[in-house]
Amino acid sequence: MATNNQTPASRSRNGTASRRGAATRRRSTTAAARSQRSATAKRGAATRRRNTASRQTTAAKRSATTARRAAGRAAATRLQAETKQAEGLATQVVGVAESALLVPVGAALEVRDRLAGAISPWTNRAGAERELTRVRRDVRRFERRGSVARNRVVRTVRQRRNRVTRQLRRTRTQVFCFARGQRKQTERTIKQTQNGFKKQSRQVQKAVKPLQQELQEQTRQTRERVQQFV
User: Fold this and answer.
1) pTM summary value
2) How far apart are CA 78 and CA 137, in angstroms?
């Protein structure tokens, strides 16, 4: 009843106050929400920064660990290679030393075995006879081979000599035939030249004889004229 008895002015004031209160509450709620969002954003940014720093730290630690491991592996590999090289050099030195020690011993043993093998067949009669038979057989074989080689060489030399002789005869015959042909051709040329000279000489004599006769006639007439004047 008291409420219903309020005046319009009171109701207007009450509505205005209610609206102001609601606006204040809305502003308070908006400010609180903004503050909460700002705080959430700051916390997120801080969290992201911490995560980034943590990732960077982890990556740096991983890089350092990888570098240490790579350096360790490289050092181990280098040490292993140097060890192998030293072992190989030591093995080579030992091998050379063993060779230098064993070669003279082996050579001496080989010489001893050969001398023993060469002398042992001559220590008894049967062995000596076998060796003499073998030596005679080898000598006959060497003689046969020498004879065959000598005959082959003699046959080869004879064949070459005969071939050279035939070639020389053929060349001499060719040279003789060529010289004889050239001589005959030269003689024919000389004879033809002489015949030509004789023919030309006769022709010249025939041509000069009338001139001589005419010259003699002119000389005779000149003498007669000179005698007439005298």
Assistant:
1) 0.29
2) 69
9-36 residue pLDDT tens: 555 656 666 666 666 666 667 766 677 7
Q: What is the pLDDT of residues 111-158, one digit of tens each?
A: 877 777 777 666 777 777 877 888 888 888 888 888 888 899 999 999
- Terminal-residue alpha carbon distance, the chain: 222
> What does the DSSP assignment read for the chain?
-TTTT--HHHHHHHHHHHHHHHHHHHHHHHHHHHHHHHHHHHHHHHHHHHHHHHHHHHHHHHHHHHHHHHHHHHHHHHHHHHHHHHHHHHHHHHHHHHHHHHHHHHHHHHHHHHHHHHHGGGSSHHHHHHHHHHHHHHHHHHHHHHHHHHHHHHHHHHHHHHHHHHHHHHHHHHHHHHHHHHHHHHHHHHHHHHHHHHHHHHHHHHHHHHHHHHHHHHHHHHHHHHHHH-
Contact assessment for residue 41 and residue 49, using Cβ atoms and an 8 Å cutoff = no
